[in-house]
Amino acid sequence: MVTYNDDEPIQVINENITTGLGVVVDKFKVGVIEVKIERKRDVTNEETKFPVLVEVTGAANGKERMGVDIIAVLDISGSMSQQNKLEKMKRAMIFLIQKLSQNDRLSVVTFASRADRVCKLRQMTADAKVEVGALVNNLRTTTNTNTAEGLKMALQILNDRNLKEGRAMAIMLMSDGVQNEGPKAETIPLDKIPVHTFGFGSGKDYNPAALEAIAKNSISGTFSYAEVNDSETSNLSTVFSQCLAGLLSIVVQDLTVTIQPEDDTVLGVLTKSVIQKIFAGDYKKTTNADGSVTIIFGDLYQQEVRKIVVEFLLPAVVVKTSADTKIIGVKRSFKVGGSLKNPRPTVGTVTRTKTPSSEESDKLKAEILRIETLETIESAIEKAEKRDFVNATKLLTDAQGALDDAEFEEPNASIDALKQEVDLMLEYMQDGDIYEKKGRPFAMCSRTSHGRQRFAGRGDDVKNVRSFATPRMDTFLEQAEAFENNPDPNTVTSVEEDEKVEASADPLGNLAPSLIQYLEDAIEALNNIRLLITQSRG
What we know:
This protein has helices at residues 85-99, 126-137, 147-159, 208-217, 236-247, 362-385, 389-405, 413-427, 432-452, 471-485, 495-505, 512-536, and strands at residues 33-38, 42-44, 48-58, 68-75, 105-111, 115-123, 168-175, 195-200, 223-226, 250-261, 263-266, 269-272, 274-279, 284-287, 293-301, 305-314, 322-336, 339-341, 346-353. The chain is of the alpha/beta class. Helix 4 links the parallel strand 8 and strand 9.
């Protein structure tokens, strides 16, 4: 059996550019994460259901990010010769290659009737970019589509690496056809590796459901699609760019969040909140023996947010006026540069009172509405797959109405983006022909994007539907569009330059989360000192 343990080590090429890279990878000082707990200020003292929103956000500035190992798995079956698809894929790959830094590595795998490794996992130095680009430009089409073989080879390359510690990894798999040889790729276990899949062409040409299933089988992958027309340009570069922007801004790995119901006393009586439901998309959840729930999120990008809605059952309490009680603890565990971090848990309280006055927060209301809309989208897809477009569009029309009727104190950008998304989905579910060409990939892309709370490119609508997009993705989108109009590799802005611009715009980006944590610790310490002094005075 062939072993792919010939991955290139990361060498320091230029001290002025690669300071801190290379030998001591696990000592990278990558940004941390922030945790916020959104809930009402007070609640009735009777037994009641109580929703809480937990937000986990990647650091604002990921300048000192970890390197990433990417395996690009490319379809070169015969259908890629139609409508210049192969040439358009090559152009998108050149953009991808040029964006990588010399702390990143790339391997290219092709598949048709069999899989071939075009190049080993190479450090993306200036020379390597030229050489790998030439290999990509020399690709030719052949017969059949054996997606499983390409995916299995990519998995083996990642598993056989010598240098793994402190490095992010991902597979980007692109296909324009239906699997017609080998086992089904969607049956391959992928629970430890992010796999991002891309359909290329009309939704009739490939199987969106299979590509979505492959992405959902992986730890945090997404399904995107690019469309093909008769022009020389394509939106494959722009769709690739959005995934790449995330991979080149990973701030933590192996993120897990544990939601813990807290015990507390109210006027000497022990109270305990109980978790009834948790909504965190389609990430894996585990209920623990103590009643806590652990969610496995995987990698988190710079300025990316994971939202968790927790529905608690709060017990009845007896209070004369009001009393504060702890209800929720949020623990998080993640890796930074290969080192495991377990920051101090964040605890949330609520005031129990006879006369509660506070309203639900806008963020919590918006997230609950997004979850309800996603459930409607799921039902609409089921109807459309059964060719019941009348009821599919009725469901989406109802969702439109609920979004339009929602009232917030301030404009809500996430709900506005969701409205636009539902409007387009409704347009693409009017009949069977448009659904098969565009509606199915659009709807399934939306489903996996909202399930993962992560951006995914939706064909020609990549500019219009920006749910979960990060600022880095917006930057890469503009650059990819410019590259498609002028595909000169020398015009592509390096990711190092992107990082410099971001750092200059937000000089405290890396420091702010740590400073906030230090301040929180200091405030807690001062409160404890005050409590001791008060107790000592009797």
